[in-house]
Amino acid sequence: MNFYTAQDQARKRSRLLLLLFVLLNIALVCLINLLFAWYLWVNDDPLLQADRVFLDYLSWERILVVAMAIALLLLFAAWLKWLDVKQGGGAVAEQLGGEQVLPLTTDIAERRLINVVEEMAIAAGVPVPPVYVMRREAGINAFAAGLGLTDAAICVTRGALDSLNRDQLQGVIAHEFSHILNGDMRLNMRLLVMLHGMVFFAELGRVFASSRGSWWVDSTKSRSSSRGYLVLLGVGLMVVGWCGVMAGNMIKAAISRQREFLADASAVQFTRNPEGIGGALKVIGGSHVQGHLEHPECQEAGHLFFSAVMPSWLWSTHPPLDVRIRKVDPHWDGRYLEPQASLSETKANADKAIKANRPEKRVLEGLLGGLAGVELMTDYHAPEVVAGPLEDSLYQLARDPYDARVVLLGLLIDGDQAIRQRQLNLIDGEEHALADRLRGRFEQFEQLSRAEYLALIELTLPALKAQSATQYKAFKRLLLQVVQADQQIDLFEWVLYQLVSRYCDAHFGAVRPRENRHKQIDSLADEYAVVISMLAYHGESSDEVTLTAFNRGAGVAGLYILKIVPRSNCTRERFSAAVVELAAATPFLRQRMLKGMVQVVRHDGQILPLERELMTAIAAVMESPLTGLDED
To answer: Which end of the chain is more exposed for a tag (fewer CB within 10 A), N or C?
Structure first.
């Protein structure tokens, strides 16, 4: 299953979820109408209404009023939860007790976590998401949150960091990346919003049940009698609300259990190491706290997590541990593993990736391969960099919220002395210290290989998200001024600006609406021709090979009579507008077009740095990872 098939299935499951939610609300309306009819019946004066029976209080007018009131309350509760969720995965992680881990953390276990997440992100072809740790949770657990690739976040408990070895932690993170890439994360967020109303009604019933006021007391009856009926009404609402919660949990269980099996299998396929995910599950089984968490809101969000957050009931959102383990390790002997001691300094010193505070090239090359049955760009290799103070210094800068700006601006500094001076003047006018810090790094940037540019950009993105909204907006404005200092925007500048915008804007509240306007690829033929023409011109050495690469990309997309766009017409402006228009296609159309683009850049047997940068930026604009590109 590839990313786009999974996304389509996620949408189908979303429609099923909506249907189940509507049915659940209908049942809720019926039960609450019965409760209110009962309350009015028993609270009415029998002397004045001696001939009234219970059914007389179930008029269609009253049922309609109660149904509208319930709908409004449910929408209000869901809207309140949506305000939290739409802020992105980082906001959800913080609500559940997570604290963001800065890339330059000095905590050994957290540094290892950062490295593992970076390795997974690079191998999956997506920017590195922000990382959070639930430092007060001893249970072994983790989750991915967010509405898409642009606002995803990874959160891990301290218990997982202290109890799992590197391979096991890698398996857990691969599991969470599978949820991100397969569309499960967005579905989980919808579940969280939709089912929040059930909890709201249970809490409303609790308020009624504990009410001491007399605002519903009939003057013709005793206060104690009326108050007693109000308490009973509240108890009834509590029962209905918690029945709704139980039914919602059953819906979550029905939808999410199979997704957990798929994510486990994807983690094995991604890491090529069944002992990673299998070992993590065995350690959870061997721990006295397992994956159980203390934060009060974790129960409602239990379907987000790697393992069950509380003792399993019939409607648990996760399959039993032993069943999950046997799926990835059929020869398991039934023995769980003891959690390991906290990561020691000795072990950390033996881990070169932690010591260098950067992803390990050997691990990256081992990860590059298939995720959920999907072929990645397997000819990718981690950039060759020279170990030493220069490389380490730049990678350190990229992880710091302040110095990440130095890295991005340094990559944009022009070789022409006049333009460079103009750029420095702009930076100096915004922040003198930033300009001085950049001047001291010129030699380091000049020695960088072009293959390192993209890796550095991707490493800066989590650090940029650690800024305040005001700082980010000011920096983005400065970034655009530096880009436009020479009165034009070249392709690399377009790539850098698109990656920063697409993966950071949502974190600061600038959410772009999702569009699926184009359902037929013929309507995008002109835009697709511009994009693959640009890719073909930048990767091939002769007109004949360029045309062959173009035709191959057109054929993969099913546009067999497409004509190559002349080089003079392939401007950056036209290319940018075409990519934005392609992003408004349905997921399956995006799959076909991205697959064709990859065939264009692969045609000559190599992928140049600019081609990789363009593909990464195109995927960012289209909100798709560079996966799902199966070969026939």
So the answer is: C
Identify the pLDDT of residue 330. 87
Look over the chain and give the mean of its residue pLDDT values, rounded to a whole number.
78
Contact predicate 309/406, CB 8 Å: no
Q: Domain residue spans in the chain? A: 3-88+195-256, 389-489, 521-621
Which is more confident, 148 or 25?
Answer: 148
Beta bridge partners of 134: 157
Both tokens assigned to 198: 């059930």
User: Does residue 45 contact residue 218 with C-beta atoms inside 8 Å?
Assistant: yes
**What is the strand order of the sheet 131-134 is part of?**
99-100, 131-134, 153-157, 142-145
Contact status, residue 428 vs residue 399, Cβ threshold 8 Å: no
Q: DSSP letter for 567, please.
A: G
- Structure tokens of 117? 């997440």
Res. 314: pLDDT tops 60:
no
Q: Name 3's Cβ contacts closer than 8 Å, sequence gap at least 6.
A: 181, 182, 183, 372, 374, 591, 624, 625, 627, 628
Closest by Cα among 324, 328, 29, 44 to 201? 29
Cβ neighbour number for residue 355 with a 10 Å cutoff: 12
Task: Find residue 374's DSSP bridge partners.
Answer: 371
Residue-by-residue DSSP string for 457-507: HHHHHHHHHTS-HHHHHHHHHHHHHHHGGGSS--HHHHHHHHHHHHHHTGG
Through-space distance between the first and last CA atoms of the chain, rounded to whole angstroms: 14
CB contact set of 457 (below 8 Å; sequence gap of 6+): 407, 408, 411, 495, 496, 499, 500
Helices 417-430, 432-439: inter-axial angle, 10-degree rounding? 140
The catalytically annotated residue of 110, 119, 137, 176 is 176
176 as an active site residue: the answer is: yes
pTM of the full predicted structure? 0.72
Query: In angstroms, what CA-CA distances link 501 with 262, 504, 508, 510?
Result: 32, 5, 10, 9
Instruction: Determine the longest span between alpha carbons in the chain, in angstroms.
Output: 99
Task: Tell me what pLDDT residue 628 has.
Answer: 41
Burial 372-400 (b: 16+ CB within 10 A, else e): bebebbeebebbebeeeebbeebbbbbbb
Number of other CB atoms surrounding residue 472 within 10 Å:
21
